[in-house]
Amino acid sequence: MTATDTTDTVDHPARRGGLAGAARARLQQLLALASLLVIGAFFSVASPFFLTYGNFTAILFSTVVIGTLAVGTTLVIVSGGIDLSLGTGMALCAVVAGVLMVDLGLPLAVGVPAAILFGGLIGLVNGLNVTLLGIPPFIATLAMMLVAGGLALVLSNSAPIYFTDVPGYLDISTGNLVPGVDFPNAVLILLVAAVVAGLVLSRTVLGRHTYSVGSNEAATALSGVDVRRVKIAVYVLAGLFTGLAGILISARLGSAQPATGMGYELQAIAAVVIGGTSLSGGRGSVVGTLIGALIISVLNNGLQIMSIPQEWQNVILGCVILVAVYADMLRRRRRG
Amino acid sequence: MRGIRPLAVLGALAVALTGCGPGWGHDPDLPHIAIVSKGFQHQFWQAVKRGAEEEAERRGAGVTFMGPPTEQDVEAQLNMLTNAIARQPDAIGLAALDSRATEPLLRQAEEAGIPVIAFDSGVDSEIPRTTVATDNRAAAALAAEHLAGLLGGTGTVGLVVHDQTSGSGVDRRDGFLDWMRANAPGITVLDPQYGGGDQLVSADITKAVLAANPDLDGLYASNEGSAVGVLRGVAESGHEDLVVVGFDSGRAQLDAVRDGTLAGAVTQDPIDMGRRLVLAGLAAMDGEELPATVDTGFHWYDARTVDDPALAGVLYQ
């Protein structure tokens, strides 16, 4: 994927180490990938049911929702922000899709883009709150988390909306592009979405400015970049991915579940961090995030397949997050 | 190179995990029932888990038990069910959060030849071999019978119900109403109120009902959250001679029964549910015919019986 070489495109001035820096960036991604492979190899040996094609697609399928949210929010985190409204925002977009297509009977071709754009609107409000009103991102998006979760219940009358009568909707997630080949469309959509996010971050002016704002906002502003516009743009993009995640989850479940979503934002942020993106901004990549999301779902899947008691599954997941963040700190200490 | 250190830590974790492996997991030689529940850490589901594990131990079978953190996490439950099927168990026990979302996976289990037993609530599907659940209508009728008895067959009573759409909410409401209508001509029943099982909402509803009906004699609450809320509402509005009957158990209701503010309650039998789930699973994997539903029983408890050792198994804290 093209985003492989995006890490550290711009970084702290002290760190513009040329070749050595690029090599270290690669190393970090290799480490994340190596962790994924080590975990996968471990489960393959531990359980005969892990390394099968069916389980392979099951893992990818279970990565889709968190992966889509995580890919979108990578941009926000690289810019030095945070978005806590992802989870309930996703539920709200799913409900909006339901209202448009089930209650109002609009066709798929209108309802799906509208629900995704609605996600962008949530992001726009977040972006304006952060820039124009100057509310810290943590607070602004925490408030949006509550607003979106509440609106999802209001719009749906607190009951799931079923897409049974919307032809083709469920195929968005559960259908197969090649008939007869068990490979869910949702996984393909995640991959396309990740490529788009990766290209934005690595190949566009907006992407360069995002890294730059994240590593040194004041210097970026002094160099003539409209920092506010960059921030608004990344929240809007994250919002669009939130809308897409809302479509993907509701198409998988066959219904918009208004009360779901709380907690998804933390899993998405965990995937971003495991993937080597720094929570203090300026550094990270979409490929890393995808690997981070895969590590989480491989762990969940493998531990369940091994019949590890559920209490311990979370303990182990927590330890992996600690190890990932520890690795991140080691690199930074080296740098200073 | 220092960058390798995290990998080494991860490796150590993996080794530790292997070391724990045999003690965890289940014995691969035993028949295996994978149970996917609606919840995990709640006392009710832990009691189901205990019953299932005890029965499995007795019958020489292995069970694994998992459930999502909240009853809204439909996607998490689907992933758990997917993983359970991937492990190719001999039977699956499922308490579906959303029947329709579960249907494709049920078909997958059927194709793989894994029998599915529904528990706690039915699944809208032909695939489960049987449903192991509480007969909520009969249990609610028992609560109505006791409330009518405590009031001497006359008076006015209200209902605070946890939900008007779910199967359990409807059955616990209608079971109560039907019994009163058929057997207690001297008792006036107010329109049911719905508190979502939320303690605070149920408390506020209770206060409103009491404000509108100062001569109310009794109240029935349809689950743990509703009952705790009703008790709080009654206490806050200062009514003392009201007869309240509840549903399920849990620390707060048990304490209220002991100190007399709750006249009694009907409790389900989650441990029995776990046991019968395992029995049904074992029967299904042997190809036996099963009845459409298996009733897992319910019990009335009050101040006299709350500490009775015979009920210790069904009253969870």
Automatic annotation (TrEMBL), chain A:
Main localization of the protein described in the UniProt heading: membrane
Membrane topology note: Multi-pass membrane protein
Tree of life domain: Bacteria
Localization (cell): Cell membrane
Keywords from the named record: Cell membrane, Membrane, Transmembrane, Transmembrane helix
Transmembrane segments: 30-50, 56-78, 90-110, 116-135, 142-163, 183-201, 232-253, 259-279, 286-306, 312-330
Protein name, as recorded: Ribose transport system permease protein
Species this protein is from: Actinoalloteichus caeruleus DSM 43889
TrEMBL record, chain B:
Claim: Ion transport is one of the keywords in the record: no
Compartments it resides in: Cell envelope
CDD domains assigned to the protein according to its UniProt record, in alphabetical order: PBP1_ABC_sugar_binding-like
UniProt cross-references to PROSITE patterns, sorted A to Z: PROKAR_LIPOPROTEIN
Keywords on record: Signal
Classification lineage: Bacteria, Bacillati, Actinomycetota, Actinomycetes, Pseudonocardiales
Domain of life: Bacteria
Species name: Actinoalloteichus caeruleus DSM 43889
InterPro entries per UniProt: Peripla_BP_I, SBP_2_dom
Protein family according to the UniProt entry: Belongs to the bacterial solute-binding protein 2 family.
Classification via Gene3D superfamilies: 3.40.50.2300
Domain Periplasmic binding protein: 33-289
Record's protein name: Ribose transport system substrate-binding protein
